[in-house]
Amino acid sequence: MTSLLPPNATATERAVEAATIRINDIPVPIADLWDPLRCPAEILPFLAWAWSVDSWDASWSLAIKRKVVATAIKVHRHKGTPGAVQDALDALEVGASISEWFNYGGQPYHFRIDVNVTTHGLTARDLQTIEAVALGTKNTRSRLDRLQIFLTSEGNVPYLGLVPFGGQDITIFPPAPGDLITLGTVPFIAQASYSAAITTIHPKA
Fold first, then answer.
1. 167 near 203, Cβ under 8 Å?
2. Directed axis angle between helix 82-90 and helix 62-77, to 10°?
3. Whose CA is closest to 61, among 44, 85, 84?
4. pLDDT score, position 165
5. Which of 62, 91, 93, 108 is positioned for an S-S bond with 67, CB 3.0–4.6 A?
6. Pfam families this protein is in (predicted)?
7. Residue 31's CB: how many other CB atoms inside 10 A?
């Protein structure tokens, strides 16, 4: 170590020099502090504040925190558009998507949020975060109509689907009258009547 102290430096001054010279050995990754993917986890909340992240939750996983910060600049560039709302929701990794009013025949300037749950459930806090992120990113004119949750089950087990279909074709004929036979010698008067109805049954449309 090359000392910059004069020859008449006191013992205290030389002790301070020896203690502070080790500061040069401490790495200071300035570039990493502004990179959301390499920033130390304990510094990440300060980077989120510096980049004006609107919604932040300390309980998020580190991966989600990094993604939210990494998306912040893009969201702020397009804030107030459906694309910005979708980007902000994608960073939460909850499977949320938005639908504009003209996609579902709603009132003008309204939108809906659908959340497709596949791997894990959502808590009340998660729903509040989704709503807060959407309302904090949308434009002032738009209104949230509905926040709906869908449950989708996925698996690799093969399955067989079967749809049975059956029916009957019935033809109804009128009865065929037989011969009328009389026995006996006493004269009598007889009358026979015959009627028939034809019914056609069609399948239901």
1. yes
2. 170
3. 44
4. 64
5. 91
6. Tail_P2_I
7. 9
